[in-house]
Amino acid sequence: MRVLVVGNGAREDALSWRIAQSPSCEAIFAAPGNAGTASRGENWDIAATDGKRLTQRALAEHVDLVVLGPETAIAAGVGDRMRDAGLAVFGPNRSGGRLESSKIFAKRFMERHGIPTARAAVVHSFDAARKALDEWSGAVVVKADGLAAGKGVVVAAGAGAARDVLTAWYGHNAIPGGGSDVVLEERLEGREVSVFALCDGRAIVPIGSACDYKRAGDGDTGPNTGGMGAYSPPAGFPDDLDDMVRERILAPLLRGLLAEAEEYVGVLYCGLMWGVDGPRVIEFNARFGDPEAQVLLPRFAGDFAALLKSVADGAMDLSLARVSNRHCVGVVLATQDYPRSNTALVGLNADVSLAEGCRAFWGGSQLSDGSVSTGGGRVLTVTALGDDLAEARARAYASVKELAGRLGTDALTYRTDIAQLP
Question: Is the pLDDT score of 149 beyond 80?
Fold first, then answer.
């Protein structure tokens, strides 16, 4: 099988790596790819959102399966164009991808189909937002409607703080992701967990879960980021987590998709808050998360490429690959000023090989003449497997220290408390 992975982040590096281990994988490509994907296949200099050129190249290269990595590709309709050309695509079309690309669509979809989620108000102007907040009590989660690269959500302590956020957004025409639409939500209490499910258009099945760390600093301090680390499987949740998510979230979601003639094919990321009454949805993503993918994929065994192809073909075969009982911890190495700004780095050591069971996945980067350059931000995700969480965590941090000293720069930082449980 000849496989194309669309995207250039650490998630796509992890997908490319796991797919390349599959017995059915003959050749692997990435577009535009990064330093990691370049080490195991061919990178194409084509943007992840350029559906026309991606389709033309995939047809010319006789690609058997396309795996859509980032939300931008899904929102740009890359999957739609490729399916129209007869390519097998793992990843939803633009319409199904609205579960992620529009917070308003997702919220109203959940309300229509009885999926537990936070109480919310949808507003389309600052005046409407101000009126909604006049009657608000408690904390407010302010969400920009569209895709905002992890920067469209602000948790405000109360209505006053939320009003300040909205004043800045509307006053400077600076709503993350553009537009004028905003969702105001109650703040849910509990513990966050991410559950991933595969959907082939007819069936939806949970395949794994993880806990990630969004804040930049130890102790969940500092600004929100795209994610500073994760671990899988989650600790401290009920043994019937998957069954509860299947019954309360996935079953009504699938019924809703079918009732509204929305064909969803790919992976669905369910960002959940687990409270005393069970799970409620914080958000849906229409793709594997980053950094969650980096700790989930090392736990897979079997023919992962064939599993994704079966989903793309509308005949999901879970016997092709399985998730092991081992634990995985991932720690992100980022430039010092992330997420406020990104600092470009050049001349990084391209050798990120680690001990067995440990891997490092590159974020956005380029490999040239044996060294790596990067635009900064989240540079690497270092992961390690272990027989229990403590072993995986110890091995991950040992690998972080080893790699930090080998890269040839002191400009990177990381959280020291990933997977450190109370």
Answer: no
Closest residue by Cα to residue 395 from 418, 377, 421: 418
Number of separate helices (H) and strands (E) present in the chain? 14, 25
> Is it true that domain 2-93 has CATH number 3.40.190.10?
no
Task: Share the mean pLDDT of the chain.
Answer: 95
CA distance readout (Å), 137 to 108, 110, 128, 186, 265: 22, 23, 16, 9, 39
Question: Is the bond into 233 cis (omega within 30 degrees of 0)?
Answer: yes
pLDDT in tens, 199-251: 999 999 999 999 999 999 999 999 889 999 999 999 999 999 999 999 999 99
pLDDT above 90 (res 86): yes
Structure-model confidence comparison of residues 380 and 422, the more confident one: 380
What three-state secondary structure class fits 9?
A: coil
CA nearest 227: which of 8, 9, 7?
Answer: 9
In this structure, which topology does domain 191-323 adopt according to CATH? D-amino Acid Aminotransferase; Chain A, domain 1 (3.30.470)
- pLDDT of 136 above 90: yes
Picking from 196, 313, 314, 201, the residue whose alpha carbon sits closest to that of residue 257 is: 201
Please name the CATH architecture into which domain 327-413 falls: Alpha-Beta Complex (3.90)
The stretch 279-301 carries a mean pLDDT of 97
- Choose among 182, 325, 209, 216: nearest CA to 271: 209
Residues 208 and 192 sit within 8 Å (Cβ to Cβ): no
Measure the CA–CA gap between 212 and 35, rounded to whole angstroms. Answer: 24
Domain(s) labelled CATH 3.90.600.10 in the chain stretch across 327-413
Rounded CA gap, 139 and 353, in Å? 45
